[in-house]
User: Which sequence fits this backbone?
């Protein structure tokens, strides 16, 4: 079978028996959610100007959304087991719609911070439920199905932030959030209508297993290995860098590199647009060369690009460096594949939840810490610090097993 026939067969398998509309709905919800999360860095210059916020406080705003979306993933997975993924995903989209309405309609600093926290909570309800429902629907094609949702997420991060930024520049930053509310309500209705109910009894049993002491011990034993601890640390430091970079990159391009907010938002969208291409290549590299070689390949370029970023000027040079930095997005496909291969099937969902929640929660401190550095007049030096942290990630990756 040639590659084109293989791709055609994979697409047919995803669409067969009416499952295509379920996948499209679930993936669209994910794309809108992560696209909304990445709209915050694009709208941050407008919010800072409106409320005269320091970079540290602005960083805290971004940290809040990341912290909320990290802390709720394990509870979100347990809720999905006990109460059905359809309910949990619909609730997540609905919570984000309400939260964005609060931010857009009230628009004072307290409402912005409270609403942002609610956005993070809504985001946290979706990821694990998305994986488990697709696992049920595509027992033989889960890799392909999750690949579609990941690609849709990158598309959302490429399209939604510049669109929100355009509306903010043309009308008001509140409308940059407000235009998303109807889309969330529409997708919440589609998820409710399209995603099937799972077996409640099976969900209850899964939930009981997920929180039993015996299961907790099994998870701890499996995650205590040197390689698993090293992988978790690598993931944490990477997320610290990634969240710090994405939180302030548009603001940096506006304040330091003198780009307009609209152009800065477009350059930021390029960061995720390149990721649409990088992730499949990174996943294929993992399959062929293993964890260490493939991860080093996608991380070395960003080290040099982050190191020279403060010294360069000019739109097209910045575009080129942004594209090089974006290769680090391929690490997600590599680390998640490695974790899925390494964690035993009987505890895979819980183990993934523990690793992802731990790394993302610790990494969420990045934006506020980076904001403190920038507030003290070291915006350029902040990116040199991120380059140094990436060197640490590369060094830790080199200690991993070859396969």
Assistant:
């Amino acid at each position: 079978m040639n590659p084109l026939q293989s791709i055609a067969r994979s697409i047919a398998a995803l669409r067969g028996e009416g499952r295509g509309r379920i996948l499209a709905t679930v993936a669209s919800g994910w794309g809108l959610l992560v696209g909304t999360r990445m709209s915050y860095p694009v709208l941050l210059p407008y919010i800072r100007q409106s409320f005269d916020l320091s970079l540290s406080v602005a960083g805290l705003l971004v940290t809040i959304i990341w912290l909320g979306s990290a802390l709720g993933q394990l509870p979100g997975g347990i809720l999905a087991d006990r109460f059905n993924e359809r309910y949990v995903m619909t609730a997540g989209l609905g919570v984000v719609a309400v939260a964005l309405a609060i931010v857009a309609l009230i628009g004072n600093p307290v409402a912005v911070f409270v609403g942002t926290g609610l956005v993070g909570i809504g985001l946290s309800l979706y990821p694990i439920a998305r994986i488990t429902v697709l696992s049920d629907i595509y027992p033989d094609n889960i890799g392909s199905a999750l690949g579609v949702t990941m690609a849709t997420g990158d598309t959302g991060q490429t399209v939604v932030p510049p669109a929100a930024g355009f509306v903010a520049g043309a009308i008001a930053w509140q409308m940059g959030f407000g235009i998303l509310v109807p889309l969330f309500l529409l997708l919440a209705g589609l998820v409710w209508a399209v995603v099937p109910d799972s077996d409640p009894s099976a969900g209850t049993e899964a939930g009981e297993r997920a929180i039993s002491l015996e299961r907790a011990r099994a998870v701890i034993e499996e995650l205590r290995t040197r390689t698993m601890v090293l992988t978790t640390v690598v993931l944490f430091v990477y997320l610290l860098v990634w969240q710090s970079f994405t939180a302030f990159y548009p603001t940096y391009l506006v304040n330091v590199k003198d780009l307009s907010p609209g152009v800065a938002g477009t350059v930021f969208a390029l960061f995720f647009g390149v990721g649409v291409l990088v992730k499949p290549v990174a996943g294929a590299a993992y399959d062929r060369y293993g964890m260490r070689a493939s991860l080093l390949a996608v991380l070395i370029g960003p080290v040099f690009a982050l190191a020279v970023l403060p010294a360069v000027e000019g739109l097209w040079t910045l575009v080129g460096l942004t594209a090089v930095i974006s290769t680090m997005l391929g690490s997600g496909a590599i680390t998640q594949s490695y974790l899925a291969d390494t964690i035993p099937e009987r505890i895979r969902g819980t183990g993934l939840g523990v690793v992802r929640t731990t790394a993302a929660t610790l990494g969420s401190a990045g934006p506020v810490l980076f904001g403190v550095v920038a507030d003290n007049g070291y915006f350029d030096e902040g990116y040199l610090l991120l380059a140094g942290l990436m060197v640490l990630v590369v060094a830790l990756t080199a200690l991993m097993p070859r396969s």
About this structure: The domain at 1-204 is CATH 1.20.1250.20 (Growth Hormone; Chain: A;). The two ends are 28 Å apart (CA to CA). Residues 1-8, 200-210 have pLDDT under 50 and may be disordered.
